Amino acid sequence: MSKHFIKPLAASLLLAFGAAEAATIQILSRDPAGVGFNDPTPVAPVGGNPGTTLGEQRWNVYRYVADIWEKQLTSDVPITVSAGWEALTCDAGSAVLGSASAWNIWINPPGAAHANTLYPQALANKLSGVNQSEGQEDDGSGYGNVDIKTQFNVNLGQPNCLAGSGFYLGLDGNAGTQVNFVATLLHELGHGLGFATFTRGNTGAMLAGYPSVWDHYLMDNMTGKRWVQMTNAERVTSANNGRRLVWTGGEVKAKVPEVLALGTPSAKITAPSPLVRALAIGTASFGPAITAAGTSAEVMPVVDQADGVTGLACDPLNAINKLAVAGKIALVDRGVCGFTVKVKNAQLAGAKAVLIVDNANDNPPPGLGGADPTITIPAARISKVDGLALKDAMKARSRTRSGLFITLGLDMSQYAGADLLGRPYLYTPNPYASGSSVSHYDTSAFPNQLMEPFINSDLTTVLKAPKDLTFHLLRDIGW
């Protein structure tokens, strides 16, 4: 990726005076004839999108999403977006949907709040009132002077590219099993506008030796340091520190109570006293929601199944396991069969709830997917590390008692997706997820936020409170 780093001279001469105007977003297609926006394939209008060719519908979504962003942002300098549809990595079961990023990055743009700091071009232009790349030599790519470069997978939904799950090009959000392109494009343009760091979380190295404007607002709750105060090694640790890295910007913090629900899901160990603490969990898409009242019970593991594998609960529980988990929280291992199968088997054995121990080292643990309307007990996923600790604590159990008690419920002292001070968590899984870590909100946010690492089906096109925090974070960095 080509990027320019320029420290303007006589910066004060470039400052714009007066109130900024509503933003204008210009979409520049780089697609050849017959491809992408120029695809002549006939299609029926869908979900408020009146286009009658595939290319027209794609363009209409781009324009629709650009209009949404225009209404939120102010800038005297037009925002240029180079857009293209390309054959990105994919196979029958998975696919890269697309991406967007700032193409040019600037240090010390006039009007910036932080010195010796990198800013994406669209924001640098807004702050200075001047197009920073105006008159600059093109890098040879043909779109090197644009603000944001986007690319999306032209083959998505075809038999060899996530078959049957193409982009939904309607404007009404009714995507069903398809990928909602409106939400996807809203999300990606957010990155191009500045919802990202240019610092490498896997190495801790700052781009060209300078921090991103993003880094000034990252605080690690374990060290009390901001990213701009850390060494490379400290940033690497912080980027893998599940639910410890928070956003400290004042506007976002002020809006958290309006946007995020009060109550953070957790599995709290209540006894024995030396083990008392709250475990991070991933909630289930099936069964009853976890409540403030919670489900409290003794924990017992599922063991010694007929297939000779410990704890999977992929088959109906045998008599010994039924006796162990009846009236208890069943501890089950991930693997072999679906989550709903495991939980349903535990439910039929009389369990009050289920904790599924991850078999990967992910921390914090992701949610549990699946659907089964007959499941009536709550379930959650815990990390592999926490699961091993619980099993170790139950080594001396009897067939019906472990002495380990947990409450699966909501911690009402925290907003879902924020720390105790109301600062939202950034996404910092372990292991590090390239392209996702640090530059998204954490998946524990509820309601789901546009700038989480995954596009959820319940997203709206509202970018600010009371629905979403995206616009308020961009305001923190200068928008």
From TrEMBL:
UniProt keyword terms in alphabetical order: Glycoprotein, Signal
Stretch forming the signal peptide: 1-22
Ranges of residues in domain PA: 306-390
CDD domains reported for this sequence: PA_subtilisin_1
UniProt xrefs under SUPFAM superfamilies: Metalloproteases ('zincins'), catalytic domain (SSF55486), PA domain (SSF52025)
Protein name: Peptidase
